[in-house]
Amino acid sequence: LTSEEFRQKGKEIIDFIADYYDNLNQVQPLSQVKPNFLYDLLPKEAPEEPESFDQVMADFNSKIMPGITHWQSGNFYGYYPANSTYPGILGEMLSAMATGVGFSWINMPSLTELETITLDWVGKLLGLEQGFLSFKPDGTAGEGGGVIQGTASEAIIVAMLAARNKKVQEYIEEHPNHTEEDLVLFKSKLVAYGSDQTHSSGEKASIVIECNFRGVKTDGSKRLTKESLSKAIEEDKAKGLIPFFVVATFGTTATAAIDDFPGIAEVAEKEELWYHVDGAYAAAALVCPEFRPLIDGYQTADSFNFNPHKWLLTNFDVSALYVKKSSYITSALTIHRDYYRNKATSSGLVRDYKDWQIPLGRRFRALKLWMVLRTFGARGLRNHIRRTVGYAKWLESQLKADGRFKVVCPVDFSLLIVQINKQTIADKLGATDIDSEHVHSVFVKANAALHARILEQNTVFITTCDLDGVTSIHIAIGAPLSDEDTM
Ligand code: PLP
């Protein structure tokens, strides 16, 4: 494309995108294509000769679009939201303009500095502890700070690596005469803790860093508690294992449960664990002060992570990771090579984010976040959270009034977990014993069938979670296009 053609096609694509969003709530949210649909539609080789952009767009429309699942539809309530907004999209475009691999300050200073600044802005909007911010109130650099990771999964790997490195360094200092075998044995005994509700990324991180992971059994409210964590740690220590890391979740994936933060904080301090907070979805709500008491006890955490790309109006991928002591991360991840050497790095005055993450290269992701923060303002972000939580509360009251359904978990945020009311099933069966095996088995089948029917109708897209063997309807509200009409 020449720059003239780019101007023209770019404008057409902007129109295409705006039309798409304008009409999105009228489209069925779930793609109906069958596996391998695209393999049959596309040529088996890349074209030898250049093709016209119009031809490519025609194929995009006729062949690719049918396989798009409309996450941005106001009728999409699956998983957790993955917000897209026009400022986010425009930020992505400008980031593409400035494409580079901004791993060091020197090779794209604005990429690094805007990231540091916007993450401090976001941290302040969330009311985070000062220790998580890069700049102290007097403008000097602190020991902590934020970094944008691609996903919460990468964030927890980075946190776990930092935690392991810290523990290993302590071991080395305490055992100056250790052998290589001692060190291998020590590492093999390390245990990271989460709960049986912790997102799979916790366990995956432990696979990556080759430590043990223990998903501690949660209580009746699906929370990791102080008591169960302490008991698990005692058992493991008795076996000679070495606890080093705990993840506490603010808003679990299945039910948006909130772990026992004050209790976990106590255990983390006593057992000298790295304390990581996973608030991937729910921590966006902290932009509204009324949600902050729910996370009390997080203050002593070593690292804190949430995804503005979920529920904070910023296009994927922006996962904000904050740490109190960034040197734990950089000492775990910095590798010196001649080709990285430059004056700015040597001056010690700049941050090279390559040392805060696993890959080397990094995109200019702060740009879209900055554009979202500027154009929505804190007020716009709060409105989005309060509006969508309001829909969740409204839906909860409608379901309660209807009587045929039960909202089975607290609606602290914008997630509802719904089951058919068991009493409705018992009444239908004419059964007097609601706890009978027969009633239960019909109840389990009916809930699964309800979800299958919702999927088949495809007017809304909703996923499920397994709650003690019952397929439960998981309604995650939060798409910017959800409104009074879609609710
Ligand atoms: N943590 C929680 C609580 C989540 O709900 C999710 C995903 O929904 C994740 C972590 C993983 O998020 P990511 O896709 O950013 O790795």
Automatic annotation (TrEMBL):
Originating organism: Zancudomyces culisetae (Gut fungus)
Keywords per UniProt: Decarboxylase, Lyase, Pyridoxal phosphate
What InterPro entries is this protein classified in? Aromatic_deC, PyrdxlP-dep_de-COase, PyrdxlP-dep_Trfase, PyrdxlP-dep_Trfase_major, PyrdxlP-dep_Trfase_small
Q: Which superkingdom is the protein from?
A: Eukaryota
Q: Name one GO cellular component term.
A: cytoplasm
Name of the protein: Tyrosine decarboxylase 1
Please list the GO biological process terms of this entry.
amino acid metabolic process; carboxylic acid metabolic process
Q: Which SUPFAM superfamilies match?
A: PLP-dependent transferases
Gene3D superfamilies per the UniProt record, alphabetical: Aspartate Aminotransferase, domain 1, dopa decarboxylase, N-terminal domain, Type I PLP-dependent aspartate aminotransferase-like (Major domain)
Task: According to the UniProt record, list the residues that bear N6-(pyridoxal phosphate)lysine.
Answer: 310
Question: Which cofactor(s) are needed, names only?
Answer: pyridoxal 5'-phosphate
Question: Which terms does the record give in the GO molecular function aspect?
Answer: carboxy-lyase activity; pyridoxal phosphate binding
Traced from the root, the source organism's taxonomic lineage reads: Eukaryota, Fungi, Fungi incertae sedis, Zoopagomycota, Kickxellomycotina
Which family does the similarity line name? Answer: Belongs to the group II decarboxylase family.
